[in-house]
Amino acid sequence: MRDLPIIRQLDEAAINRIAAGEVVERPASAVKELVENALDAGARRIDVAFADGGKTLIRVTDDGHGIQADALPLALSRHATSKIDGSNLLDIHSFGFRGEALPSLGAVGRLSLKSRAAGADSAAELEVDGGRIGKAKPCALSRGTVVTLRDLFYATPARLKFLRTDLAESRAIAEAVKQLALTAHGVGFVLRDTSGDKEREVFRCDPAPDLSTRVHQLLGREFAENTVQVDQEADGMRLTGLAGLPTFSRGSAVMQFLSVNGRPVRDKLLVGALRGAYADYLTRGRQPAVVLDVSCPAEAVDVNVHPAKSEVRFRNSDAARGLMVRGLKYALAGAGHRASTTVSTGALGAMRPEPTGDSKARVYQMDRPSLGPRGVGRPSPPIDAEDPLFEAVDASARVEPEAAPDAERLPLGAARAQIHECYIVAQTKTGMVIVDQHAAHERLVYERLKARMADGVPSQRLLTPDIVELDSATADRLLEEAERLFGLGLEIEAFGGGSILVRATPAPLGECDVKGLVRDVADELSEEDSSRSVEARIEAILSRMACHGSIRSGRRMRAEEMNALLRDMEATPHSGQCNHGRPTWLELKLDDIEKMFGRA
User: Fold this and answer.
1) How many CA atoms lie within 13 A of 98 on its CB side?
2) Residue 363: its pLDDT value, please?
3) What are the beta bridge partners of residue 453?
4) Model confidence at 361, in pLDDT bands (50, 70, 90)?
5) How far apart are CA 375 and CA 369, in angstroms?
6) φ and ψ at 23, to 5 degrees?
7) CB atoms inside a 10 Å sphere around CB 89
8) Domain 386-600 has CATH 3.40.920.10
């Protein structure tokens, strides 16, 4: 008979190392835990230093209330904490509450804990080496606590193999401290890299009076300028913070900072709600930039559902999701036609000096932007005055359409020309505006369709019903949604086989390509994501429809049409970007233009 496995109690060192595997995934995790301890101690200044990506050194110094000398050994034992009494795990108001961070770090590295409690006559120090706790001894320290961690994971060398390069780990540390600094804007932070012979200050931020100031300190002026204030309450919860304009989007989620009651989280529910809130404004693959906090009563959220405390569970998840979506949509609607300043900055950046044969003379020409599927970005060819295109552009540029008096004082100014039958050039008091006529009008049509959606989009009957040939499966999918489409102004019925008979189209579209419209709606229905709400699906269909009612590139516009489009844009929410998240207009300030021509 085979020997049965023996059940044994693990020793304290093994237990702490296992716990460390859950709490301390990498150096950034250790930094996060120690900075959170400092914040819980009421610190107003926190200094974080690290070396070699945190692998050889992490030191966190704070001016908080400190730890009494006789309590230092207890602070380094598992499940010992001053932050909760254990009677109610749903009434947690601190970052830490499990009492695992310090003993876990001491189990896998060389830890030194120095502290001077508020009002104490002296400070004390205690060292832990791979789980072995030394004796407390006096030390010099004016106030607060200093935690020094050296040789992280030296006691568990296998873990070292899973760490990334020093540069990657350093970036993760900076990100962890930045997230906490954004939630605690009233606290001053310094982050220093002490690797090698020279010390480098990664960032420094003094205590800030408000979130906007802290965002400016940490994320830069550009981020602060291209966001809108968010402040929405519902169901006992409140959403506050800053949300980036859709045209200030990113290719990844690196500029998304979410927190719940000041605790940084990467919660699936909130991330999904964030995506849903911006789905109407961003194309796939683009991510919004936000700094947002959801505040609610402590008992309305469970923070003890993830080892690293990076996820939470709301008692009323639907309310939390709804607050995020409604709050963001309301804030973005308040931005009106505003587009991000980075759009104009990018245009100015494309203006570059080109040396000529004369080294003293310089001419400026504009790089063609990347045109996606229609072309590849390349330098502009020299202008030939004999070229017929030059004559056409020159004639167009001389046109000065009539505009209402003082139209130049309005945000988008007075239309002065149409270039390449695609772009409207308008003059403002402080510069000029260039508008993509198709993208802008597409957004306007889309917003009109959405506004009429609640009462049903009016339809216009075709004089002669149009027949659209599709494959049987696609036709069946369309016919299944015939009732929903009827409410959107599109009236269809079966015509045998894979044919669809179209009797009416949405009135706001005007004359449109019926076959193209039906095929685009069919494509959208085939791409439906079951996780999307009914409203999101309908809006996606309306977005497809709007493209067919827009002013097309290549169409000549009269002066009154151009100015009417500008006025509609100023009065319509979200008109700063098209349905796919691209900018609809950009502004060039006169000061910048004069600098490019050497006038300023």
Assistant:
1) 18
2) 36
3) none
4) very low
5) 9
6) -85, -40
7) 11
8) no
